[in-house]
Amino acid sequence: MCNLYRMKASVQEVAQLFGASPFEGANLATEIYPGYPGLVVTGGQVRRMTWGFPLALKGKQGQPLKPKAVNNAREDKLLTPFWRDSFERRRCLIPVSAWAEAEGEKGRMTRTWYSLPGEELFAVAGLWRPTAEWGDAYSMVMVAGCPGMTDVHDRMPVVLARDDQDRWLQGDSIEAFSICRTWANPLAVDRTQDRWASR
Fold this sequence. Notes:
Elements: E1 5-6, H1 11-18, E2 31-32, E3 37-42, E4 45-51, E5 53-58, E6 64-70, E7 72-74, H2 84-89, E8 91-96, E9 98-103, E10 110-115, E11 122-131, E12 135-144, E13 155-157, E14 159-160, H3 162-170, H4 173-179, E15 188-195
Parallel strand pairs: 4-12, 7-12
Antiparallel strand pairs: 1-2, 1-9, 3-4, 5-6, 8-11, 9-10, 10-15, 11-12, 11-14, 12-13
Helix pairs in contact: 3-4
């Protein structure tokens, strides 16, 4: 599952690429982690939201713990109660420059980055919802990994071709579900020596 991605574009660049209205005052990191803010496009606007739906947790004595950020939604779980309302009513585009997966042996894992060749920015399928804990929050939709990355991970984000972006945002749930498929085109792969946990 994706737990780290890059988004190098400005709010204005995202707005121009996706034909959306920008907003002022965004101060975002280039590398986005679960529980931290990122940009999404929905309703014709670029919006700042927290990456991950909050999941309430309790300790051994029943005490409330800090919520966990559920930042990935598997396509085969989209009609379960946790995701269904957002899938049917609140879909979004997540602008991404590259996403990372951990590669290597436990304790020494490094970052391997995946992107689209020749593309500085592309869209990944997302869902969003309002939350009491973090305000509006979003999650990435995941499918089976393509052959270019299965040696590292068996899941990947739903990368949306330009022709599918409006269908994802505005189509009914049957049409949207048909778009949840593994990316069939080549990926650019950047294997680095950067430690996965060097956050």
